[in-house]
Design a protein that fits this description.
Length: 270
Amino acid sequence: MPVKHVNNVPVWQRREPAKQYAIWAGWMLGGMLFLLCWKVISDNTIWEFMYDAGTQAGSLIGRMVPPDWSITGSLMLPLWDTINIATVGTALGILIAFPLAFLAARNTTPHPALRAVALGIIVSSRSINALIWAMLLVTIVGPGIFAGMLAIALRSIGFVGKLLYEAIEEIHPTPVEALSSTGAARTQVLAYSVWPQIMPAFAGISVYRWDINIREATTLGLVGAGGIGLQMNAAINNLAWGQVATVFVLIFATVIVSEWVSAKVRHAVI
């Protein structure tokens, strides 16, 4: 530990002077960066609109209450489409992410080049938001729920793949070594020593991603990718705030149900 001498008496100090100065410099640079970012934000913000934000929020809420319950029946099919987008998209994403995770994990990949490719796919998927994927896919395959499913799947690949390959890398090596020493094939090692260790993590990751995708699927309709977001966008464009409130209530109820279902599934599997 660093020690300095004061009147020939050794005195303990927490850090060496160079390290302490480096920490101070880091905090100073961080503070300067924060102030610079705040200035950029402030220069590009019209603060006059912020002065009556409370009044505007109160007015908007007043126009949304009470919700227009007369459209509830017509929202059931779009809501069902939203759930299907999330469910099928999640399943497709997991189907692709599962082998990618084994290729990306250091202890299961057959070759470093394959690991680099798998990691590239996982990182690329995670780098782009589902809404951006949906905008691109609507242009490519046309509007509708198919574009929404693909957007959810492409976004899920990176999420599931990353968490799963990290779980694979953290398995205990003893069962793998014991089974390998008996002359078991690579597929047998994966099936009987790797898979049992990662199965609880795989189940939890999959259900958690489905829960997230339920939320994301509700917004994809804003760019034409199907689901209840289409009705919400139409209601906003028509300034039908009572209908917007009804859509919000249905989305909120769907999220609550998905939370309950995911909690039950995780408890049952894990």
